[in-house]
Amino acid sequence: MCEASLCDDHLKVHSKSSEHILMCQKKADVIKENIITIFKDIRRHLDLLEKKLSCELSSQEEKVLLSVTNLIEQLETKEKELSMEIRHAEEMCNMTDPIALLKDGRFSLNEMETLDEELDLPSVEDFDEGLVAATLYKGLADVVSGVRRRYDVVADSDIVLDVNTAANNLDISQDLKLASYSVTQNDRPDTPERFQSHQVLSSRSISTGQHYWEVETEETGDFRLGVAYADTDRIGIPSLFRCNDKSWSLRSSNSQYRIYYNNVTTLLPHKPTSQQLAAYLDFEAGKLSFYELSDPIRHLHTIKTTFNDVVHPGFLIYNNCWLRILH
């Protein structure tokens, strides 16, 4: 019985393992097919954009060349007129009657002298490079936006800092993208939303979907990047993005990365090599991933949890450090 039971358990484990492998392979196949489709679509849109830019340049070139052609035709007409004037002048020079020469008013030396002044060739600056650049930038942005929509990832360009939550020892830039540690205290009003020290939330609330944002920081600074519930404590030790179960964060300090949640610290093996980081949040799946935007991009850690309420991107900045949300 024992051997039979062990055999059955072995078969169950083997069957479960096989099913898991099959699911992984299917998942990988779906992702590969999706990537192939995405890149086909990217190439198609890039080809269309290249043709659009080529047509725009050809149109501008045609306008400039047409302007030059019209000018050449005007000069040829002027040349014929001047040739006739020259012949007439020669005839006048052969005349012996000076009175008749003075009465003839068709010959104008001033007209000949001003010919060069009328030669107004179009400048190479007439090419509208700004229009070309704008078309290129807009086209590439549309391609990227299309990819993001296809992959159901929202690149949150609207993530800005909420001054109403910013601690008074943090300076916040006018564009609400930069937070930096301040030696002197700001005099913002003491409200229930405001953190007592070091921290600030984004005004962007996330309750569904997949989201992605990037930050840039001080090279040797001490900061934390993560998400937190809106009702996270604002005062004392429990408010810090480490000492509660309402926030999840990545910390960079002393050339090390750490993951913080509910007083539990996980030291990561990676050493910081870039000043730019990214966060990817899949709300329904309960996944918060952190990446270092080095070359190549490096996955640092993925937190797996369950989000039971709306979360906000949150940031903690310690002494002499700054953090900027990238567009």
Q: Please write the string of helix (H) and strand (E) elements.
A: HHHHEEEEEEEEEEEEEE
Report the portion of residues in β strands: 15-25%
Q: N- to C-terminal separation? A: 66 Å
Shape: elongated
**In percent, how helical is the residue content?**
25-40%
Q: What's the number of extended β-strand segments?
A: 14
Low-confidence stretches: none
Average predicted local confidence, pLDDT = 82
InterPro entries: B30.2/SPRY (IPR001870), B30.2/SPRY_sf (IPR043136), Butyrophylin_SPRY (IPR003879), ConA-like_dom_sf (IPR013320), E3_ubiq-ligase_TRIM/RNF (IPR051051), PRY (IPR006574), SPRY_dom (IPR003877)
Organism: Engystomops pustulosus
GO cellular component, one term: cytoplasm
Domain B30.2/SPRY: 139-327
Give an overview of the whole structure.
The structure is a single chain. The protein is an alpha+beta fold and 327 residues long. The chain has two domains: 150 residues; 171 residues, Jelly Rolls. It is 39% helix and 23% strand. The chain contains four helices and 14 strands. The strands form two sheets. Strands 1, 2, 3, 5, 10, 11, 12 and 14 form an eight-stranded mixed sheet that branches. Strand 8 and strand 9 form a beta hairpin. Helix 1 runs antiparallel to helix 4. The longest helix has 93 residues. The radius of gyration is 36 Å and the shape is elongated. It starts with a helix and ends with a strand. The relative contact order is 0.11. The model has no long low-confidence stretch (mean pLDDT 82).
